[in-house]
Each structure stands twice: as structure tokens, then as C-alpha cells.
Amino acid sequence: MYIGDWLKFEERNLYCRHAVTILSGQKLVSGTVLGVVTASGKYVAFDGSQGDGRQTAAGILVFDVDASATGTNADTQGTIIARGPATINPNQLTWLAAQTAYVAAALASLLALGIVAGTGE
């Protein structure tokens, strides 16, 4: 997955991007929708079935991140689209398995951040 596959527009000078800490134990690709674990403030793949903060979409990963090692020192820095104005193609985003029921709520959370879902090429 390339950033151009899912990101169709972002404000100039990387205004929409934000550096974040990706929680260890994950290998994520560009376009993965992320949530934040409230207790740690660290980012993880969005999971609408959880209740620890990750059930609210907080951004979209810009570049692949390999934080698959475990342990407190294995957290990894990542860059996300955290705010708008930005336009994304929702059909090209990456989700954890079994998230279909939560996609609409996640896209609504992104819209609240100014990240607009649109399929126009």
C-alpha cells in the first residue's frame, strides 16, 4: 500500500501530519486506521470492539511501521494524518479483521478531525 492509494489531498506543508508513538507488538502498513489506548496515549490499530480508547479513530498511518517486537522499549515512532483538511479514499484504508460493523463510526470520527472520506479519484 502506498500513501497515494488512500490519501487524495492534504493541506500544504504537512499540516495534517503528526508524530506519534506506536505501541509495541504491531506491524502496521500505510493506510491503517489507528486509535489511541487511553491509559498509555500510544497508538494502535483501530478496533471498534474494544473499550480502551482504540474504538475511536484518531488518525491514519502514513508510512509502514514495524513495532512487532515486544517490551517497553519496543514502541516505535510513526507519522499519522491526524487532522484536516485532508481527503482519503475509504476503500483503500487498512482495517483489522472483523471491523466492518465499525467502519461508519470510524469514518465519522475521522470526519470530526477534518479528514473527509471520498471515493472521487
The strand count comes to: 10
- Mean pLDDT across all residues, rounded? 94
Secondary structure category: mainly beta
Query: Unreliable stretches, pLDDT < 50, 5 or more residues?
Result: none
H-E string: HEEEEEEEEEHE
Helix share bin: 10-25%
* Largest beta-sheet characterization: 5 strands, antiparallel
Question: Can you say what the CATH homologous superfamily is?
Answer: Head decoration protein D
The whole-angstrom Rg is 13 Å
Number of helices: 2
Strand content: 25-35%
Under the CATH scheme, the architecture is Beta Barrel
CATH class reads Mainly Beta
- By CATH, the topology is Virus Head Decoration Protein, Chain: A
Compact description:
With 121 residues, the chain is mainly beta. It has helices at residues 3-6, 103-112, and strands at 7-10, 17-22, 26-28, 33-37, 42-45, 59-61, 65-67, 76-81, 86-88, 115-117.
What does this structure look like?
The chain is mainly beta and 121 residues long. 12% of the residues lie in helices and 33% in strands. It is built from two helices and ten strands; from the N terminus they run αβββββββββαβ. It has a five-stranded antiparallel beta sheet, with no helix packed on it. It has a three-stranded mixed beta sheet with strand order 1-9-10. β9, α2 and β10 (115-117) form a beta-alpha-beta unit. The chain starts with a helix and ends with a strand. The mean pLDDT is 94.
